[in-house]
Amino acid sequence: MGKPALLVMSAGAVLAIGLSAASSQRSAWSFAIMVLTVIASSLVAIAARQGAGALAVVGTGATIVWAFVERPPISWTFALVVLVGTTAAFLTNGPYAVRRVLGVIPIMLAVSFVVFSLMASLPGDPAINILGPSATPDAVARVNAEMGLDEPFFARYGNWLGDAMVGDLGTSVLLREDVADGISRSITPSLQLMLYALILATVISFPLGVYAAYRNGQRADRTINTVMLGFFAVPPFVLAITLILFLAIGGVTVFGVDIGLKILPGSRYVPFGESKVDHFKHMLLPAVSLALGQAAVFMRLLRADMIGTLRQPFIDLARSKGLRTRRILWRHALRPSMFTLLTVMGFTVGALIGGALITEIIFVLPGIGGYMFNAITQRDFIAVQGGTMVIATLYVLILVMVDFSYLALDPRLRTGGSGLGGDGG
User: Which position among 26, 61, 90, 280 has the lowest Cβ density within 10 Å, counted as fewest Cβ atoms?
Assistant: First the structure.
């Protein structure tokens, strides 16, 4: 039995054992057990010095199954996926992974400083927001002292950064709850919405982009480009209102004829653990309204790169060997055409967060967009800076995961150093 096969079987066995143990424990303990199983599987990979890509597949699959069985907060699932991806990247090319991880530190420090500085420079006194406009100077001074707002700027920044690094983002001024608890509660619907939108955009854009590139300049290519350009030009909130109108509340009546359906709900959020069918029914319209515009971007990028790839000599060689067109397109041309698309997918998170803000309000989803909107309008600056840091951290981590995915697409990146995985993967 070869080492790669041994790795897959060993890592799968370790993760299966961890999964079975985790599913019988309470959520916090099951999360800890899954983290330990990922670490144990990485040790198996180190011993075999092969198959980091297989480890990533097995680890991600086990994490998804664990999330389906245990139904933990989605932030825990996201943390495990990041751990699996980082471990696989480190095993594939250790120096490259270390450089990328270390590069995150100054970025997050800069982001935290900018966020805290902007919040500190806002006009108004948080103590007055808490006590009301009729507060006495003594009461305002007492609240400022309790919250540490009377300390120098850098002392306040250092205290806040130290607390944030251990998960303490402060207490909401108006909601009277830990900001971390409020964000943890509201981020699950937002991450689900962004994940579903990204999956839908990928499912729509890949076949259309590949086919449009194959039919470059023909009628099918022009039709696909025109339709997708139309979706790109329409803002997500307009698509959301249109989808609600024609698929949720029955549409409009023209000359006595009803144009529209009532087949999907137009509002409310149903947790995944409460009812899987109702959950996806309620999330379909919001996800589609976010996905169509992104699908247009993905399709055009993939089409442009595919057109260039199809003109390469190795594609002519594949054709001369008599390979089927489908195999040439999907196996030989698609992979080298995905680098630009993967980069844009990472940056798409910012657009999805911005689009989700209004989309969540339209569909009455209790997501991070609504949480941030309420915090901003009510001048709850502690909640705003905590939410901004969480969103920025999520954004940076996703971009790092996109960089790590290049290791699976470009073999040249796997030879940048011996690492722990050597040249295996």
Answer: 26
